[in-house]
Write a structure and sequence with these properties.
five-stranded mixed β-sheet; 2 domains; alpha/beta; globular; D-Maltodextrin-Binding Protein, domain 2; 334 residues
């Protein structure tokens, strides 16, 4: 257990070092920037460097941050809520909104000020795109989603660095045996390997359908399996390959056992997170609102989110505690 916890802390250790480096660089540089008007910003640097500074002017603004009711979403909701509170806003949270449909209705009705949504979910569930129509590029997916959100009187801020998406996973020993790093490396090898995935995997572009159609791969066999068994089939030797999720905590906690292949053709739809809110809230909350949202999510790389998910799902920390640890380790809060 000690070695596993040590691995789980590696991502946060790197973040702490980065925060220190940013702080040193900031101290060594001259301040030549000027305000663009309005109230003073809640962050020390436009690009997100440095700690969040409390702005007393924000104290008159009440915000309710929502999220769907599963661990990764709850962690994100806590990060946004705690970051905004550090900027001086009066913040409440509602981290049990249920499905994306419920969360979508909540922000439209004003029940919550904003919530995190995956770009691919928004484009397919709300706006009717087929999975293969969702841009793999995070910026393109955000621009498309924001265009559609604006038609509904909503707005989506820029995406997180990490994406939560399907991925081809396997044991590290299998990857080493066949020298696999990218999905394209499966060419000429996939015919020897069995693939396991969810029952709908056959038809999904970010699953078997895309691997066959867009990568041109053929597998020895495909077996549908409950997603809760996606790691079990690898560990028991039933599957050579299994469809995993990029933010699975096992990829951080057991990084010496499981790996995922790089989607080098960018076939799988973008699952980067967008913070969805309303123009009314943006106007009432002032410039620190969007600035703080973007600042707290800047350090949310795939490795860091895997670590956060591992803390909550495997180590049984609360989302609130995991979010606080993230904000402290990045130097965003003291």
């Amino acid at each position: 257990m000690t070695s596993k916890k040590t691995r789980l802390r590696a991502a946060f250790a790197m973040l702490a070092a980065l925060a220190l480096a940013i702080g040193v660089a900031a101290c060594g540089s001259s301040s030549s920037s000027s305000s663009t008007g309005g109230s003073s910003g809640s962050t020390e640097a436009e690009g997100g460097g440095g700690a969040i500074a409390e702005n007393p002017e924000n104290g008159s603004v009440n915000l309710t941050i929502g999220s769907k009711n599963f661990p990764e979403q709850e962690i994100l909701g806590e990060i946004y809520a705690q970051g905004l509170a550090a900027a001086g806003y009066k913040v409440k949270s509602d981290l049990s909104l249920g499905s994306e449909t419920v969360a979508h209705k909540a922000v439209k009705s004003g029940a919550v000020s904003g919530y995190p949504e995956y770009a691919s979910t928004a484009l397919t569930s709300f706006f009717g795109l087929e999975p293969e129509e969702v841009p793999a590029d995070a910026t393109e997916a955000w621009e498309k989603a924001n265009e559609e959100f604006e038609k509904e009187g909503l707005v989506a801020f820029e995406p997180t660095p990490f994406a939560s998406a399907n991925a081809v996973g396997l044991l590290k020993t299998t990857a080493e045996k066949y020298e696999l790093e990218n999905v394209s490396d499966l060419e000429g090898v996939s015919e020897k390997l069995s693939l396991y995935g969810s029952p709908e995997c056959r038809e999904r572009i970010d699953c078997l359908a895309g691997l066959e159609k867009l990568y041109g791969l053929k597998f020895k066999s495909f077996h549908p399996v409950d997603i809760g068994l996606r790691y079990t089939v690898l560990e028991k030797g039933q599957a050579d390959l299994s469809i995993l999720f990029t933010t699975d905590p096992q990829l951080s906690a057991d990084s010496d056992k499981f790996v995922i292949l790089e989607d080098d053709k960018h076939v799988f739809p973008s699952g980067n997170v967008l913070f969805v809110t309303t123009p009314k809230v943006v106007e009432e909350a002032g410039p620190d609102y969007e600035k703080t949202i973007l600042q707290v999510q800047e350090g949310l790389t795939l490795e860091v989110v895997q670590e956060l998910d591992a803390r909550v799902e495997l180590e049984k920390e609360t989302p609130k505690a995991a979010a606080a640890a993230y904000l402290e380790s990045t130097g965003l809060v003291g």
